[in-house]
Amino acid sequence: CGGDSRRKKAAESSESHHHHHHHHSHSAPEISRIITDPTTGRRYCRGKVLGKGGFAKCYEMTDLTTNKVYAAKIIPHSRVAKPHQREKIDKEIELHRMLNHRHIVQFFHYFEDKENIYILLEYCSRRSMAHILKARKVLTAPEVRYYLRQIVSGLKYLHEQEILHRDLKLGNFFINDAMELKVGDFGLAARLEPLEHRRRTICGTPNYLSPEVLNKQGHGCESDIWALGCVM
């Protein structure tokens, strides 16, 4: 599928360090290189692994018709066999697909075949703020302002749509070629409920828990803003 062979080699050599020693017997069957969307007949070529999440692995994926590159979240049906797991994925898709903003990872398309669920998202070539900070060790104040302004812009849009992110952290801020920041990963996102209807549970394993969430008062906009302060 083309792609920069230098980059491929680097990815392969770095992958070979991790993966070849421990093949899990229970791991999902190998995902094929060419994936066809059964509803549209479009063909995609799966590239390298970009990251791993809860249920999903993220891959580079190229639309063979347009040559457009996406980040594809690929979720084996076996990992979401239980109804509550499937509901989580459906909710993430339902919330994410209505969002459209310069600083939110764009949702493009979703389809399933017999083995997997595929979610096609905007490809961010420079990975996440977590990677950038790890490589750089420290950022200057102007850079921090540059990135924070974009996070705030994306978050303001989310809250205007009455959606909470609930897992704001460096690993969920993605950077594209143009050094633009995109807020991503809506796996823990939820609609904003009025105070009396809020679920009082502490969801998932978010990094930065605000006092009101810890005190079981539910999660509102202010809890995302707390996490943003922690990020800074």
Automatic annotation (TrEMBL):
Biased composition (Basic residues): 17-26
Keyword Oxidoreductase: no
UniProt xrefs under InterPro entries: Kinase-like_dom_sf, Prot_kinase_dom, Protein_kinase_ATP_BS, Ser/Thr_kinase_AS
Binding annotation for ATP: K82
GO cellular component: centriole; centrosome; cytoplasm; kinetochore; nucleus; spindle pole
GO molecular function per UniProt: ATP binding; protein serine/threonine kinase activity
SMART domains with a match to the protein in the record: S_TKc
Residue segments, region Disordered: 1-33
Domain (Protein kinase): residue spans on this chain: 44-232
GO process annotations (BP): G1/S transition of mitotic cell cycle; mitotic spindle organization; regulation of synaptic plasticity
Any matching Pfam family: Pkinase
Protein keywords: ATP-binding, Kinase, Nucleotide-binding, Repeat, Serine/threonine-protein kinase, Transferase
Family: Belongs to the protein kinase superfamily.
Record's protein name: Protein kinase domain-containing protein
The organism's taxonomic lineage, starting at the top: Eukaryota, Metazoa, Chordata, Craniata, Vertebrata
